Amino acid sequence: MDSRSQAPYKSSSFSPATTRDDSGGKTREVDRNFSLGALRDKDAQHGGSREQSIKEENEQEGDGDHGARVGGEDPGLVGGGCGEPDLASLSVEVDAFLAGQDEDAAPVSITETTLERFASAVELLVARYEGVEDRWASEAGSEPTALLAAITRIAALASALGKTPEGGGKHAAAVNRVTAVLHRAITFVEEEFLAQLEDPRVPRAGPGGEQQGGAHEPDRCALAPPSNAGAGIESAPPYPPETVERLRAMADAMVAAGYVTECSQMFLVARRNAFDAALQGLGYEKSNIDDVVKMTWEALEAVIVTWTKAFRHAINVGLSTEHDLCTRVFAGRHAGVGRGIFADLSRCVMLHMLSFTEAVAMTKRAAEKLFKVLDMYEAVRDASPVIEAFLSADEPAAEHSHSGLAELKSEIAAVRSRLGESAAAIFRELESSIRADAGKQPVPGGAVHPLTRYVMNYLKYACEYNSTLEQVFREHHDGGGGGDDGGNPFAAQLMEVMELLHGNLEAKSRLYKDPSLSNIFLMNNGRYMLQKIRGSAETNAMLGEAWARKQSTNLRQYHKNYQRDAWSRVLGLLRDDGVLTVKGHVQKPVLKERFKQFNAAMDEIHRTQGAWVVSDEQLQSELRVSIAAVVVPAYRSFLGRFAQHFSAGRQTEKYVKLSAEDVETIIDELFDGNATSMTRRKT
């Protein structure tokens, strides 16, 4: 049975206290200090303590006979004198009355005097605790204080009186007295409960307002230090064990007294503030959607980094800490209360953090946002099993806990889906940007195109998220293959991007008027692509060796095409094709023309191809070596056969301008981006 239904008359710092009017069942406001209002005025006038005032009141009440004294003795006084009411003996009578309320027990009545005396005894105990500096010094081990035991007993008494003739009018004044004392006691416990929750490490100010035990620390008790943020790192408990025991004892008393709502609300608010403080310690500040949408990407990127760190801390450290605390403070028969508080706390904190992802999703999509969106996706994805574990740990009967955590689990799944859809769409934007890049200006010197550099570096970083992107495209594939046949949908998407890039580069190569330069351009870009893929284990694994072999084959073909287009004419000039020698005689005019044409061709090649760019040193060396291996021996042989036909001196200098070593030097100066003519070089 809900403990609240057993305490019909209650108040707290969260709601006005009420009690029943003696005359007709209507409710009226009750001052928390109802039974001591006049005495406090008396204290102010005479400077006496509240404890002494209560003693005086008890002595005065002892003079008035309520029909309870027999033979001049009061059962509520020690030895029948006029001292303090004996709480222990009165508690025995109250317990006997409460035991008599069981269905199987014989009913036991209780006198109005006993009710009055017991209420005064409890009130005196409350006053004593209010007047001491260290209110927990008398606590022994993990046992609750005498005050909490007395509060639990008077709460049970107030509940029981509401169901008996004694409470229905027979002892109405005494019942009101019991209820008022209960209200005052619970108010004291509430204040102590909140003080322990908010700052358990520093003693609060004493009754006179002076600070006890040193200055307050500015920070409230929060979660783990920011340096502990991350999966698998345990947080230090937010409270020392003795404080947890105090909180548990006070929570037991409040819940037993029917103040479960007030107790839960105080605990929830205090821990929510602590949770927020921990997130702020990580640099996370709450942002509304409008602020996020208006941010520049550079600013938003930094916020996403902080959010991801804070979210992982909250999931992996914060929630476990709070779950453990709720389990310890609300243990045993009140475990359901703790589960409900934890569910509310988890839902409130996490739903607010998840709302940030919606704001990010509303910003304009851009390729550079992919990786931060994937970071958020992974954090949210990894939160699902944590919430599932909390759900599984709760008993099936904990409906409130299940509904709160189930709502959070559902929202996490929805956010994950939205982030995954956004990531897939952003990646596909890369394909659109490749298709749209149809620039009409060729890159000078046939160098690596900026599009190639951008795409390949983008894919390198994307492949570092290969398992996540595989998951994303499996969940959000567009029917483009790889999603339904058991293959890797991200690998299929990656291959499509590579094919698009290859096609785009083929089209851009046709912008060059010189076919040789077109092949240099394709070689440069193809080599860059291959190196980027082989330089990244993740990318290489995604595309596979078959793609690398195909790319290498393409590069060899570009190389052959270049040599054919750029050097076939030069090599043709060095052949004896039946024109140079006729019937064993060298045709000197033809020979002169051949040398002139060769010299002009080499000058043109040196001037033009010297300005071409091959930034990869290995490819540059491969090209020079392969050219020299064909051209230099052919020229050396040509010189050996025909240079002798020129007379020494001016004629030789006029036609034989290059030695074999000069040709080799010219070849070694190609592809370095320097446009220098052979003539200027020699002067």
UniProtKB/TrEMBL annotation:
Residues 19-32, 39-72 have a biased composition (Basic and acidic residues). InterPro entries: Cullin_repeat-like_dom_sf (IPR016159), Exo70 (IPR004140), Exo70_C (IPR046364). GO terms for cellular component: exocyst. It holds the Pfam family Exo70_C. Keywords: Exocytosis, Protein transport, Transport. Residues 1-18 have a biased composition (Polar residues). Residues 1-84, 199-238 are annotated as: Disordered. Residues 307-669 form the Exocyst complex subunit Exo70 C-terminal domain. GO terms for biological process: exocytosis; protein transport. Belongs to the EXO70 family. This is Exocyst subunit Exo70 family protein.
